[in-house]
Design goal:
This protein is of the alpha/beta class. 59% of the residues lie in helices and 7% in strands. The longest helix has 25 residues.
């Protein structure tokens, strides 16, 4: 599931991601966001935004700066949140994600409930809406920028107070609202409605004289302040009080039914986002089902949500726990018992329940329904049709699948990031908080000599970057697994628990005496129960899906999991011929008869999704299917019961990802280029698994080398900023299991040399280049010629490389390798810019741009635009270079390219330095160094780049002095939002022109 955002403007501006604050510090950024949120879902014209953000005093390049602000907001909140329209921008959020929208909806529903004669529900709804207010709206932003927005919101709040007080009066609670009304008439002395309500409350409390005195007070106030008489509502209320109208009498108090909600016995941790979504779904739907993997906390979430929703239901909240019910025929009776019905007649229990609920306003929680899904669904439909005031909140590992059902998938608890939880001061993740709480609850064991005395364990659990964070991540944030791990902390350290997690199903066990086997409090028991609820075909697919690391798409699932338990040659793992049987007859056991028809994979996947075994995620418009690691390990245990079948499946897996990389290398330089690069990035865990298997399995090294070579040809390692990993696999696989075919050996060696060159690792590049030449000694291959040209360019800075790279380009074209030819074109144009004459440089640059445009490849186009800026810096006008360089950076950022910005920011620093803006150049060099540090590239090993870099740095140091230069450089290097900084500095330089700081 994606991150859940909440936006709050009913008070200081606040943004939450999965319940944790998102920091947006710059005031103008916050103003822009607030303006977009106030008109969420509608296009806000650029002129309106400029006027709001700068208050009628915009800078010279306000539109460009506004674009920069939008980019920074997208970076902070997500790339798809703010959409660009030809007239302006709009923020695209769910209505329920904004507190102002929720407030309006709740007040509207409250008004409808009051009109329908249900003041109890009306009061609850409006109170819930008013509780969203945290102070004056947008109180942390300049008030003059929102002079029309804030009063409108405040007026809505005042109206809500009037509505809620009306509801409370009709509920028979005049004494409760009198103190509030006294305060409201003091704050709003000219608002006649509050005075009328105050008069009515006094009268209903038997204080008729005070009610009449209240009328005289407001009449005098209106005459003194405005010179007017009381309005119709006040005069009518005065007349009816004088006449003692019977309908003014207070309504009788309605007694509430408590229900049977059990008390909480442990601390409830986190889940703010899921609680809010559950409440909103209960407003929209009469049947809400919480689904999720076993142990994820569905029951606990349902009970907490029911407790918070209880005030809405005059007849209470009732819980029917179906966990121990094994006979479907007794379901109706179990629900009747939970409702406290003692009907001993011969009539069906379902009829008794339906009659009991018919005129009641009640929330029924059906807990643990997965083994009774069909019967629970049928009963729910019957009861909902019979009782219009009934709402049902169910928990089940499988959805009911009935009309009107709203399903909420309960995820694991929020997890710490691998490098810390976020901004300084941010709250620890939910998983860490649960671990700390439960570890502290076991502290009595520590006092008796346990592994972690006193509060040290809890402190460790709150360290986001430490072993406790790794423990939570490896347990997928599943509360049951975390609680069981916390129990083990009485006798083990967190490091020891981590070491034993490979056998997590034995480690995480805390059986409770007297409970049925399937409900023992063990991780294995919970997942065994889920496994038993699956069909044979679903169990077989579960087992096979465990071969995927990090999930898969439907194409991969069909390619790898369909068919029999055969190896690549069509035989079973035990050597017999494949024997196809229907998926419905598939049973575990490794007897060679397991079979899944390709056309059945989707239906079986859907079944596993509905049973909360498989998580489905939308990635770039494509559904991906993922097993949580704990679920995956369970499937892997079953798979490895037959080692031959497991090996056969891994053969299929590596073959599939080999085919994928072959296609990527063929199609990458074309319209599908970015799509391929993003798809490969998503598949990194599977690609690594395939490469590891090829490294270790006899006879598969060549296939692994081909995968690594194809990934390098697509420039995938660079796009993901992980060239070191690409080099690792090439070095590991080449020669791992004997000699490779000559052509593949030359290609692999050339790719190793290319990566080493780009890393600036001169010794390794020299060694690999020599190996490449030796491997093609009989006749210099095109790949070897390309490497020699690249070596002469990047290591020696030799002008002769331009001609060699041009020849390599022609050779790749003749061989029918357009992608490789295009990379040669790119390097040729780059070398010409650094080392050739102005005429040659522009000739090569134009050829490169024309070629990139013809291919329609967005990544290649961004590099061609960068090359235009580079050529302009070195052979033209540095000021003119900023336009293509800005364009290139924006394109690279838009496609999430991690490699391109490293060099674009560096080149922009050169251009800015050439224009005399040395402070900004120093800052940009620092930002470029930060980006380059992620890649591990040594700039000193790239001679032409290093020469221009040194010239820019030396000039800035000379003009600024070493101290100021270091200060500016450090500012740039400390900037996390490097792209946003660069765009801002470009705008500043463009508005100031040439200078000499």
């Amino acid at each position: 599931m994606g991150a859940q955002h909440e936006y709050k403007i009913l008070g200081p501006l606040e943004i939450l991601r999965d319940g944790h604050p998102v920091t947006i510090g710059a005031t103008r950024l916050r103003v822009l966001l607030a303006v977009l949120l106030n008109d969420a879902g509608a296009v806000v014209p650029v002129d309106t935004l400029v006027d709001r953000v700068w208050g009628g005093n915009p800078p010279g390049r306000a539109r460009n700066t506004l674009q920069n602000y939008v980019l920074r907001l997208r970076r902070a909140l997500g790339p798809d949140l703010i959409r660009t329209h030809r007239r302006g921008y709009l923020i695209d959020i769910e209505p329920s994600a904004l507190d102002a929208h929720r407030f309006t909806a709740l007040v509207r529903q409250g008004g409808q409930a009051l009109e329908a004669g249900d003041p109890e529900r009306a009061a609850v709804l409006v109170r819930e809406g008013l509780a969203l207010w945290r102070g004056d709206p947008l109180s942390d932003l300049p008030g003059e920028l929102f002079a029309d927005v804030v009063p409108a919101l405040v007026e809505q709040r005042t109206h809500a107070y009037e509505l809620r007080i009306d509801a409370d009066l009709r509920r028979g609670r005049p004494a409760e609202v009198l103190p509030e009304l006294r305060a409201l008439t003091g704050v709003h002395p000219l608002r006649e409605r509050f005075w009328a309500q105050r008069m009515l409350a006094l009268y209903q409390c038997g204080r008729q004289g005070e009610a009449l005195a209240c009328y005289r007070e407001v009449a005098a106030l209106l005459a003194d302040e405005l010179g007017v008489d009381p309005g119709d509502e006040l005069r009518e209320m005065h007349r009816r009080i004088l006449a003692a109208a019977p309908d003014l009498a207070a309504a009788p108090l309605r007694t509430r039914t408590a229900g049977n909600l059990p008390a909480e016995t442990t601390t409830f941790i986190g889940r703010e986002t899921q609680l809010a979504r559950t409440h909103r779904l209960l407003e929209l739907s009469r049947l809400v089902t919480l689904t999720g993997v076993g142990g994820v906390g569905k029951t606990r979430l349902a009970l907490r949500a029911a407790r918070q929703a209880a005030p809405r239901f005059g007849d209470g909240v009732w819980v029917a726990d179906l966990a121990t019910l094994s006979e479907p025929a007794l379901l109706d009776r179990a629900v009747a018992d939970a409702l406290g019905l003692r009907d001993q007649s011969a009539r069906p229990a379902a009829d008794t329940v339906a009659d009991h609920l018919r005129d009641r306003e009640l929330l029924l929680v059906l807990d643990n329904c997965e083994h009774l899904v069909q019967d629970a669904a049928a009963l729910s439909l019957r009861l909902l049709r019979a009782a219009p005031g009934l709402r049902i909140l169910a928990t089940s590992r499988e959805r009911f699948g009935v009309p009107g059902e709203h399903v909420l998938l309960v995820p694991g608890l929020t997890l710490p990031g691998r490098y810390g939880s976020g901004p300084q001061g941010a709250a620890p993740s939910e998983a860490l908080r649960l671990l700390a709480d439960r570890a502290a609850a076991s502290s009595h064991a520590h006092a008796d000599g346990g592994a972690c005395p006193d509060s040290a364990q809890a402190d460790l659990a709150c360290a986001d970057g430490g072993p406790a964070a790794e423990l939570c991540r490896r347990l997928d944030g599943i509360p049951l697994a975390i609680e069981l791990a916390a129990v083990r902390l009485a006798s083990l350290t967190i490091e020891q628990v981590l070491e034993r997690l490979e056998d997590r199903f034995r480690l995480l066990t805390a059986p409770r005496a007297g409970t049925p086997h399937r409900y023992q409090h063990t991780l294995r028991g919970v997942i065994d129960w889920s496994h038993s609820l699956c069909t044979p075909g679903e169990r077989l697919l579960w087992k096979r899906l465990s071969v995927f690391a990090g999930g898969c798409d439907l194409e991969a699932a069909e390619a790898v999991c369909a068919g029999g338990g055969t190896d690549a040659y069509g035989t079973n793992a035990n050597g017999t011929e494949a024997n196809g049987t229907d998926a419905k007859s598939a049973e575990a056991g490794g007897d060679g008869r397991e079979y899944i028809a390709r056309e059945d994979v989707l239906d079986l996947l859907t079944g596993l999704v509905h049973k909360s075994i498989v998580v489905v995620e939308n990635t770039g418009g494509t559904a991906r299917y993922r097993l949580l690691e704990t679920i995956r390990q369970y499937g892997m245990r079953h798979l490895e019961e037959d080692p031959g079948a497991a090996t056969a499946l891994r053969l299929r897996h590596s073959d599939h990802y080999h085919r994928m990389t072959v296609r990527a290398a063929t199609e990458w330089c074309g319209p599908a280029e970015v799509a391929w690069l993003l798809r490969l990035r998503t598949e990194v865990p599977n690609i690594r698994a395939a490469l590891e298997f090829c490294r270790d399995h006899p006879g598969r090294a060549a296939l692994g080398v081909e995968i690594a070579v194809h990934l390098t040809r697509t420039r995938f390692w660079f796009f993901g900023c992980t060239p070191g990993e690409g080099r690792h696999w090439l070095e590991t696989l080449v020669g791992a299991q004997g000699d490779l075919p000559d052509e593949l050996n030359v290609l692999a060696t050339a790719m190793k040399a290319w990566i080493a060159l780009c890393q600036g690792d001169r010794p390794a590049a020299r060694r690999f280049a020599e190996d490449c030449r030796a491997a093609s000694a009989d006749s210099l291959t095109v790949a070897a010629l390309y490497i020699e040209g690249a070596y002469d360019f990047l290591v020696h800075g030799s002008p002769g490389c331009v001609e060699r790279l041009a020849r390599a380009r022609d050779g790749f074209r003749a061989a029918g390798h357009p992608g490789d030819a295009h990379m040669a074109t790119m390097l040729w144009a780059m070398a010409a810019a650094f080392l050739a004459t102005r005429e040659t440089a522009w000739l090569a640059c134009r050829a490169y741009v024309t070629e990139a445009e013809a291919y329609g490849a967005e990544w290649a186009r961004s590099w061609a635009i960068w090359c235009t800026g580079l050529t302009e810096v070195l052979h033209g006008d540095p000021a003119a270079a900023l336009v293509p360089l800005r364009d290139a950076l924006g394109r690279q950022h838009a496609i999430d390219d991690s490699w391109g910005p490293v060099w674009t920011v560096e080149t922009i620093a050169w251009a800015v330095g050439a224009l005399g803006h040395h402070r900004r150049a120093a800052r940009l060099l620092g930002a470029a160094d930060r980006l380059r540090g992620i890649t591990g590239v040594a700039l000193t090993g790239l001679q032409p780049f290093h020469a221009v870099h040194t010239r820019t740095e030396d000039r800035a140091r000379e003009r600024l002095g070493a101290e100021v230069y270091a200060e500016e450089w450090n500012r740039g290097a400390a900037t996390e939002q490097g792209v946003a900084l660069v765009l801002t500095l470009i705008d500043e330089v463009s508005s100031h022109g040439v200078t000499d700081e």
